[in-house]
Amino acid sequence: MTTTQPPLKHLGRKSGSPVQYDAAILEAIPRSLNRETYHITSADPGFTGFDVWHAWEVSFLMGNGLPVVGVLKIIIPQDSPSIVESKSLKLYLNALNMTLWEGATREESIQKVVHTVEEDLSKLLKTNLTVSFFTHAEMRDNDYAAWDLLEEQYDFSSLTFDAYRESPDLLHRGEGMKQFRLGTHLLRSNCRVTFQPDWGSVFIHFKGDRGPSPEGLMRYLVSFRNENHFHEEVCEMIYKRLWDAFLPEELMVCCVYTRRGGIDITPVRAHNSSLLPSVLLNPSVIGSKLLRG
After folding, report:
1. Do residues 84 and 28 lie in contact, with contact meaning Cβ atoms separated by under 8 Å?
2. Which residues pair with 188 in a beta bridge?
3. Are residues 102 and 171 in the same domain?
4. CB-side exposure of 160: number of CA atoms within 13 Å?
């Protein structure tokens, strides 16, 4: 049975600005909307992974009316039936701004907010997830800060790039690489609903008997430029195309998107948990930004 998305209340529509906390603001979108197209099943998706959200503009009021500001880090497992719709999360978090959260100390108020957000999102997404709040944080080096970039390691100036719709056939052009850890800051896709551009970087760990050429890989990643998908979907599409085309021994794909509306989303998928990034998935730290914040 094909999954259909119930009408969304916020995304692509004019929305007011809620001024008091309300869990009903949150909306979910089934992961199966895109997974069915790429033959990814919930029972055996062919990967493990998480979606990591950073909300950089979170604030609320202590019981005495004093504001608290900080950053929320939300880590959601890929096996949740749904993702949270990003505009609904933004409105939900904005509604905390003028809400009083009782607590004898700032730390007690923070813990109440963290517990509430964690409980609301877990209930919405039908999964166990992790929420952390940072009032100050020493940035750790990003997991991918030292990775080589395709656009710096190879000269593509003599190539013609004219495919801007996702096309897996592009992966098979040229002499393939059997093993690589490469990234690019040239990722662009568009929101599935609003068609607004989403900018990001993608990092790929690959090991196998055969693989894509640098030219083929770059052409393929550039081909997302006119694709309309959510961040999580783009990451899974890249992963699935590489897996289906080359059946590698090891594969990890991470899409580090820039923030929009004060929130950034970084989905990561890997065939083995040992390939997952340590800093990104550590709820106690925040990784440094890459090319763009």
Report:
1. yes
2. 199
3. no
4. 1
pLDDT digits (tens, 9 = 90+) for 74-132: 999 999 999 999 999 999 999 999 999 988 799 999 999 999 999 999 999 999 999 99
Q: Indicate whether 49 pLDDT > 90.
A: yes
As a whole number of angstroms, the longest Cα–Cα distance in the chain is: 65
Looking up residue 67, the CATH number of its domain turns out to be 3.30.1130.10
Flag whether 231 is in a domain.
yes
| DSSP structure class, residue 140 | B
Neighbours of 185 (CB within 10 A): 17
Catalytic residue among 51, 143, 198, 264: 198
61 found inside a domain: yes
- What is the DSSP-derived secondary structure letter of residue 274? G
Find the catalytic residue in 51, 191, 235, 255.
Answer: 191
- Catalytic residue list contains 198: yes
What's the number of domains the chain is made of?
Answer: 2
Stretch (H or E) spanning 110 = helix 106-125
Q: What is the dihedral of CA 133, 257, 155, 176, to 10 degrees?
A: 100
> For residues 226 and 33, what is the distance between their CA atoms, to the nearest angstrom?
19
E strand intervals along 196-262: 197-207, 250-257
6: left (phi over 0), alpha (psi -120 to 50) or beta: beta
Please state the pTM of the whole predicted model.
0.93
Full domain range(s) for residue 160 = 148-264
User: Is residue 235 flagged as an active site residue?
Assistant: no
pLDDT digits (tens, 9 = 90+) for 164-193: 999 999 998 667 899 999 999 999 999 888
Token code pair at residue 134 = 């940072």
Same domain as 186, residue 227: yes
Three-state SS for 222?
helix
- Nearest-angstrom CA–CA distance, 250 and 279: 20
CA distances for 251 relative to 61, 116, 165, 244, angstroms: 44, 36, 23, 11
Q: How far apart are CA 128 and CA 141, in angstroms?
A: 27
- Count other Cβ atoms within 10 Å, centred on residue 274: 9
